[in-house]
Specification:
Two copies of one chain form a homodimer. The first copy, chain A, has 221 residues and is an alpha/beta fold. The first copy, chain A, is built from eight helices and seven strands, in the order αβαβαβαββααβαβα. Chain A is globular, with a radius of gyration of 17 Å. At the A-B interface, α1 and α5 of A face α1 and α5 of B.
Chain lengths: 221, 221
């Protein structure tokens, strides 16, 4: 049984990598930069995306895919608060998105003319990190209430993310969060990670992150 | 491919249920009550367990199994702060514990003489809910910073948990958390759920939860 499981997982990951490469090529040809956003439940993905999009939408045509196990809350919310087009992907219980699921969603979305496409992955600090979605870059969020030790406990998520955004920084005092320790823990997993600190509530730090994303889109499309 | 994956998953879950039943029977014969604790990363599992154990350890002999993908932080911390015996389980990247993994850990732990055994599962609001660990009851934690809408987005976790503990309640004002709405959302998933509200920081609510656990152990062993 054990061998069978490992073998099937290898097959799945191999198949997934192939699909992801195809998808990346497809989007590159259309001039679309694709960012996969990952985090624990409640880390502030939808809020950060809303704030980022509102800073970038005058320059780029943006689309958002919202993945959730159930519920239509996020897609509605993000469209209402930004005016950009969004669709909801239901994963039917699955804990992550595969490249195939992303591909199917994109087919239903009509991405022609977009400059920038965001995927808000399922809230999960483990499984989404295993599956290449076909994105150009992974952006992960760690919220202050989760604690500065999380890179030690969830290594893969931090290893695969070139952008790490520490969110809810206005609560650092309450949760005894040490930014220096957190940065060290993140860089231990990925020495090239770009680390940003934001507070959606106080509207701090989002400009700097938006400028970084802007450069990525201009260089990467 | 898709069929193969579904079939393998069915096999895995069926095999897991069988193992879980065996484990439950084994622990029942030894008079050990087994609680599986699940939550998102950083929801406060280790802290709550520490506080619960310190209230129950004079009456019961308690053991703790700490599951993590990597790192030995929690097992050390809980032993140091409670004096009870704990072991660390490394899942080698896996996003959940199976009954077999729990079984193997128990074999390495020597549970003879214990009254109460806790398992702190991997921080993940999705996958651990799919796998029966062989526990007598599932206790899940939802921290206030995660938001009161989480039962809508992560249905299975709330469906399989008879105890739902809302943690970090002292931060409700900051995060605009609505307890009434949260309770409704939890009960929508599981109408028999017992809901508790605790603040580890202010040491509020833990006594009531400890009394509930005490009764479960006395009735359930």
């Amino acid at each position: 049984m054990e061998f069978q499981v490992v073998k099937v997982k290898e097959d799945i990951l191999q198949e997934n990598s192939k699909r992801a490469e195809e998808l990346r090529k497809f989007l590159k040809e259309k001039g679309i930069y694709f960012i996969n956003v990952m985090a624990s439940p409640g880390a502030g993905k939808t809020t950060l995306l809303t704030n980022l999009i509102n800073r970038l939408k005058s320059e780029f045509k943006i689309g958002v895919m919202e993945a959730d196990i159930d519920g239509d809350v996020d897609a509605e919310r993000i469209s209402k608060n930004t005016g950009v087009r969004s669709i909801q992907i239901h994963t039917s219980g699955a804990c992550h998105l595969t490249a195939q699921m992303t591909h199917d969603a994109i087919n239903n979305f009509d991405v022609d003319g977009l400059d920038l496409l965001f995927l808000e992955n399922v809230g999960n600090l483990v499984c989404p990190a295993e599956f290449d979605t076909g994105s150009n870059i992974n952006m992960m969020l760690l919220s202050v209430p989760e604690g500065d030790d999380k890179p030690l406990k969830y290594p893969l998520m931090f290893e695969v993310s070139k952008i790490a955004v520490i969110t809810k920084i206005e609560t650092a005092d309450i949760f005894d969060f040490d930014f220096e320790r957190c940065r060290k823990n993140i860089l231990k997993r990925n020495k090239d990670a770009k680390i940003f600190e934001v507070s959606a509530l106080k509207d701090e730090g989002v400009d700097i992150l938006a400028e970084h994303v802007r450069k990525l889109v201009l260089e990467g499309r």
